[in-house]
């Protein structure tokens, strides 16, 4: 992570986010981001139920096709209404194409990659060179895992599953 660090605060480990620095960086690259990646990175528009909000989501599936150079990550998050009440589940699918690298670093108990059920607490996108991007996603609960994908193509889809009381 570049804009999020773990620091010792009064004897406890805490995550520190450089949100303003990250938003300033995004403003310098937003025009060259693929449209769905720009939507994922939007940290400046106001709240709406259609806004992409990965916070607290967890990994349902990671599918890497090394021959096809693709990675698909499915996350389970929350569907929120205009008043920020949870009204269902939102399944996000992050499709990466022309993938150059998939990395998972950290520990969650003793099983790093198999235990990616911690909550999403931060993600950031960086343009490494024109047309080449890295998406870093941080999950944490009792440990922390950073999942990183370096890629050239990106597509985002999501499906809402509303609770029966929300319909």
Give a description of the structure:
This protein is mainly β and 167 residues long. It has a domain at 55-166. Helices cover 11% and strands 53% of the residues. The protein is built from two helices and ten strands. The protein has helices at residues 19-29, 35-41, and strands spanning 4-9, 12-17, 58-65, 70-80, 86-97, 101-107, 119-129, 132-140, 144-151, 153-162. A four-stranded antiparallel sheet has the order 3-4-5-10, with helices on one face. A four-stranded antiparallel sheet has the order 6-9-8-7. A hairpin with a 2-residue loop joins strand 7 (119-129) and strand 8 (132-140). The longest helix has 11 residues, at 19-29. The chain is globular and about 45 Å long.
How would you sum up this structure in a few lines?
The protein has helices at 19-29, 35-41; strands spanning 4-9, 12-17, 58-65, 70-80, 86-97, 101-107, 119-129, 132-140, 144-151, 153-162. The protein is mainly beta.
Topology at a glance:
Elements: E1 4-9, E2 12-17, H1 19-29, H2 35-41, E3 58-65, E4 70-80, E5 86-97, E6 101-107, E7 119-129, E8 132-140, E9 144-151, E10 153-162
Antiparallel strand pairs: 1-2, 3-4, 4-5, 5-10, 6-9, 7-8, 8-9
